[in-house]
Design a protein that fits this description.
Layout lengths: L1 E10 L8 E3 L7 E20 L2 E20 L2 E21 L4 E11 L2 E4 L8 E5 L2 E10 L2
Antiparallel strand pairs: 1-3, 2-8, 3-4, 4-5, 5-6, 6-9, 7-8
Length: 142
Amino acid sequence: MVFGVEGDISGVFGNGWGKSVCEVGNCDSGAHGAAQGLASIRGRLGWAFDRTLLYATGGVAWGLYQGQLMSGSSQKLDSKVATGAVVGAGVEWKYNQNLSFRLEGLHYMFNKSFSGDSEPAEGGFLRIRNVDVVRVGASYHF
């Protein structure tokens, strides 16, 4: 059995988890944005078989969001940090004494809302949803 703690910071490319929503019939409010980065601190618990490690991971996650909130004729460019949780699993294979490769899947859970007005029902608001990530990595062991 193997236990460890891991931290990471990732850049996000593309236009992933921003969504425009208008709760009122003919409103001219809305929101548009995208994730700019993800970070986490996770524990890892795994089982080693020869040179292969199967593991589960989980911990605290942060997502950096940059977006534009619009309400009527006013626009507001804003950055928010959403705090949530992350869980996942992976496999790591040690190629030799100093080099290992891994494949892992992570599920980031945020489910946050940011409003352009005092109440979401009065105008547009942005929901930051869950993010799923598949990562391939290599590690050098000193």
